Amino acid sequence: MTSPATTRDPFLIAVEQFDKAVKYLDISPWTAEVMRHPHRELTVYFPVEMEDGRLEVFTGYRVHHSTILGPTKGGIRYHPAVNLNEVRALAMWMTWKCAVAGLPYGGAKGGVIVDPKQLSLRELERLTRRYATEISVLMSPLGDIPAPDVNTNPQVMAWIMDTYSMHRGYSVLGVVTGKPIEVGGSLGRFDATGRGVMFTARESLQKLGMKPSQTTAVVQGFGNVGSVSALLLHELGCKIIGVSDVSGGFYNPDGLNPNELLKHWRIHSVLAGYPKAEKITNAELLELKCDLLVPAAMENQLTADNAGRVNARLIVEGANGPTTPEADEVFRQRDILVVPDVLANAGGVIVSYFEWVQGLQSFFWDEQEINRRLERLMVTNFERVWAVAQAKQVDMRTAAYILAIERVARAAELRGLYP
Ligand code: GLU
Predict the structure, then answer these.
(1) How deeply is 137 buried, as exposed, middle or buried, from its count of CB atoms within 10 A (0-12, 13-18, 19+)?
(2) How far is Cα 302 from Cα 324, in angstroms, rounded to an integer?
(3) The CATH homologous superfamily of the domain defined by 192-344
């Protein structure tokens, strides 16, 4: 873990990134001022009955950052470190992610302060159903559509869909995405974020004149994003030399097989004990000599503290907010290309959009169609951001923000100020 001294408030970081990009744009000061703030936010305290009969009160949040481009979209995370400013930052990042991707959505995020690994399945279900009910004043298929994020999964989305549907008296598929296929989920959604990371890495390597078959990669995090990214980068031909999860880092200079890692993980629910690797710390993992580093865990991983020792040529952000502005500056000086979260990990929300459209129409597409559309969008968006970065001589994060803020600002100015 990074030291607390360099761990920064994610919302202050989000605003700082926004202010850096806004300088390149000719938008009215009131539009910029509105975008610096969340639109609305809800805090809920709710009781859940635990297995031993006790009631425990949990704290949850749902924040809408922007409703300019359409309904708000963004995941729900269950984590002990969730706090309001983190959720605000994640909601703001969703606004830019949806705008860069050209989706008709604003940004939102939700979270509950909880370690779900400490709960039984029934406790997790009760917590989810109660939280879904609490946020249903904000959540709706045309207003705000949640999805999975850290420590939530298709089962949790199924409970949210069912809870909302029970209140309505009929099934509402469009209220949440990332659902299991059996209850209106989309083919390709589970792999979508990792698949998008792989497409982004592939395009970036090409720009740098590097071949996947000659690329060594390190992936931090082995959740939905990290594990699928590692699998698909391996399929692309990259040599995965390091991975990590909550139990620490695993290193093998001759290459790790993500299929075997996943098999181990499925049995033990953790990478600890994986035999064909040297055990290293999370800090060491981030500083391994490699071509491609994919941080796919949490915020604040690449900071002023360790950026000078990162030994990669290319960083593709699978997580939201893994790099602080100070680290971004170090990477710029060291000529390390950083492809930002709002571009690189957009595959998830892009296929969420496909799932939402399919659910609203009750007309479902095949997986090939979904992956083809995802690839086309990821590549086009990458090229657009690359072109802005070249034209304005800015880093890829600032370029992505310039595109995103411009889209939202233009729509805001066309819609005008109410009343
Ligand atoms: N939680 C994911 C993200 O950060 C997905 C959001 C969604 O699909 O709405 O992008």
Answers:
(1) exposed
(2) 6
(3) NAD(P)-binding Rossmann-like Domain (3.40.50.720)
Residue type (1 letter), 389: A
| 147 CA to centre of ligand 1 in angstroms | 6
**Which pair of tokens denotes residue 123?**
């406790």
Query: Could you tell me the distance, in angstroms and rounded to a whole number, from the CA of residue 276 to the centre of ligand 1?
Result: 33
Mean pLDDT of the region 199-210:
98
Q: According to the model, what pLDDT value does residue 1 have?
A: 43
Pocket of ligand 1 (CB under 6 A): 73-75, 97, 147, 149, 177, 320, 345, 348-349, 352
Measured distance between the N- and C-terminal CA atoms of the chain, rounded to whole angstroms? 48
pLDDT at 3 over 60: no
Domain chopping of the chain, boundaries: 38-175, 192-344
Ligand 1 nearest-atom number relative to CA 353: 8
Band of the pLDDT at 6, cuts 50, 70, 90?
low
- pLDDT tens for 388-400 read 999 999 999 999 9
Residue 269: partners with Cβ closer than 8 Å, 6 or more residues away = none
